[in-house]
């Protein structure tokens, strides 16, 4: 029995993420950043950088084979920023849909979130560091980022090892359900980034199948 | 926001809950306080559901004074402050799918709230709330906030004087929670913790014979 006002607020909250992904080689980074700077908002200010420490927590028990995962993002640039995120399964949809859609709930929290998760029953599954650049155009968000493996647990500044010589490029929008017109906008924007980067809807299940 | 002290006001014998609330409201209005809308603090409790997770309670509280926040308090004392959307994350923990249990489940009939009139009087905010557990009247909580200060020990005497003129000698001593608080700086989590303590006490008391208001 939830407060009707609260229930309404939650219903109106954007929890659907429309997503396109691609990747570029390290050597092409400068060119892509230049292009993004020109296309996105605030072209005259320097691009925004971010360094995040992401920790993925899972909760499981005997009767539930599939663990529930929440990830914690902690900004290493602005250490007071903590975010807790839930990502649902991505839906590929059919050919008429241009982007992936997945449930995405992003919640800013206080700095005791790790202790909280631990006490609730979550355990750390894996962690990594993401460094990259952030752009936005209207409600579209573009990140160009590199994922680093942490060679020593808990060490986020030294002993980092990049996994591949490339950057992950993601174009995403958070919206309420059923706003499929956004996918069209995103497709048009992705067109403008060709041939520097090819942004596509990537089937994660296929990646997982080849990974195991 | 400042320092908040919450007092449980016992309903005088021979009076109904509503009559007691009316009397308190009259008192506050006589002091010169002006009405400034309604307020509500609600609390819903979840318990862990399986053998693998150690027994744990999660209390989810909302306070209309902080309408964009959700407070998740554990029985260990940890309290997480987050965006309102945390409720959606909580629903993932409580969602049961076919053939599998949820990690946590809501305790039925445990929803408790304090709801009532909010007043402003110069540097003070005063709230008179009737507490109801699953729609049954349980008691009255009076909240007195002194806004210009965040150090509890520095403004207890001011709060005491104000609170005594409303609830009488219930306010002779600071609430236990304030007394035992180690960090001198007061935060919204402390208000939520005080409410939680009171709510837990109300839940323990046997249901009253009195009809709800």
Automatic annotation (TrEMBL), chain A:
Q: Does the keyword Nucleus apply?
A: yes
A GO MF annotation of the entry reads: transcription coregulator activity
Per UniProt, which keywords does this protein have?
Activator, Nucleus, Transcription, Transcription regulation
Q: Pfam families from the entry?
A: Med18
Question: Which protein family is named in the record?
Answer: Belongs to the Mediator complex subunit 18 family.
What function does this protein fulfil?
Answer: Component of the Mediator complex, a coactivator involved in the regulated transcription of nearly all RNA polymerase II-dependent genes. Mediator functions as a bridge to convey information from gene-specific regulatory proteins to the basal RNA polymerase II transcription machinery. Mediator is recruited to promoters by direct interactions with regulatory proteins and serves as a scaffold for the assembly of a functional preinitiation complex with RNA polymerase II and the general transcription factors.
Complexes and interactors = Component of the Mediator complex.
**Protein name according to UniProt:** Mediator of RNA polymerase II transcription subunit 18
Taxonomically, what lineage is the organism? Eukaryota, Metazoa, Spiralia, Lophotrochozoa, Mollusca
TrEMBL record, chain B:
One of the record's GO cellular component terms = mediator complex
The answer to keyword Hydrolase applying to this record is no
Q: Name one GO molecular function term.
A: transcription coactivator activity
Arranged from A to Z, the UniProt key words for this protein are: Activator, Nucleus, Transcription, Transcription regulation
Q: Which GO terms describe its biological process?
A: regulation of transcription by RNA polymerase II
Question: What is the annotated localization of this protein?
Answer: Nucleus
- Family assignment? Belongs to the Mediator complex subunit 20 family.
Instruction: Name it.
Output: Mediator of RNA polymerase II transcription subunit 20
Q: Which organism is it from?
A: Mytilus galloprovincialis
- The gene coding this protein: MED20
């Amino acid at each position: 029995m939830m407060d009707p006002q609260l229930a309404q607020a939650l219903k109106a909250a954007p929890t659907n993420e429309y997503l396109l992904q691609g990747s570029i080689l390290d050597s092409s980074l400068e060119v892509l950043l230049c292009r993004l700077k020109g296309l996105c908002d605030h072209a005259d200010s320097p691009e925004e950088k971010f360094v995040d420490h992401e920790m993925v927590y899972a909760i499981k028990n005997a009767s539930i084979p599939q663990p529930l995962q929440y990830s914690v993002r902690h900004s290493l640039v602005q250490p007071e920023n903590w975010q807790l995120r839930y990502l649902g399964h991505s839906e590929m949809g059919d050919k008429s849909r241009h982007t992936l859609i997945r449930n995405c709930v992003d919640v800013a929290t206080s700095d005791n979130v790790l202790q909280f998760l631990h006490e609730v029953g979550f355990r750390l599954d894996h962690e990594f560091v993401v460094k990259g650049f952030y752009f936005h155009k209207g409600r579209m968000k573009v990140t160009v980022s590199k994922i680093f493996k942490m060679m020593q647990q808990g060490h986020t500044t030294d002993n980092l090892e990049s996994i591949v010589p490339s950057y992950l490029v993601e174009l995403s929008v958070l919206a309420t359900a059923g706003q499929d017109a956004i996918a069209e906008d995103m497709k048009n924007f992705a067109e403008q980034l060709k041939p520097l980067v090819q942004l596509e809807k990537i089937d994660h299940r296929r990646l997982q199948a080849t990974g195991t | 926001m400042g320092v908040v002290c919450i007092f449980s006001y016992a309903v005088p014998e021979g009076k109904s809950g509503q009559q007691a609330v009316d009397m308190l409201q009259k008192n506050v209005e006589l002091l010169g306080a002006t009405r400034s809308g309604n307020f509500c603090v609600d609390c819903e409790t979840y318990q862990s559901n399986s053998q693998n997770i150690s027994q744990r309670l999660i209390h989810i509280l909302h306070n209309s004074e902080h309408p964009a926040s959700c407070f998740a308090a554990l029985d260990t004392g940890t309290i997480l402050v987050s965006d309102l959307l945390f409720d959606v994350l909580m629903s993932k923990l409580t969602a049961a799918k076919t053939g599998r249990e949820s990690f946590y489940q809501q305790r039925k009939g445990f929803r408790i709230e304090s709801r009532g009139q909010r007043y402003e009087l110069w540097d003070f905010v005063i709230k008179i709330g009737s507490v109801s557990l699953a729609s049954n009247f349980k008691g009255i909580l009076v909240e007195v906030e002194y806004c210009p200060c965040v150090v509890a020990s520095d403004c207890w005497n001011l709060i005491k004087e104000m609170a005594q003129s409303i609830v009488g000698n219930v306010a002779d001593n600071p609430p236990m929670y304030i007394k035992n608080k180690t960090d001198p700086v007061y935060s919204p989590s402390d208000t939520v913790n005080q409410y939680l303590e009171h709510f837990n006490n109300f839940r323990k008391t046997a249901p009253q014979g009195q009809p709800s208001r």
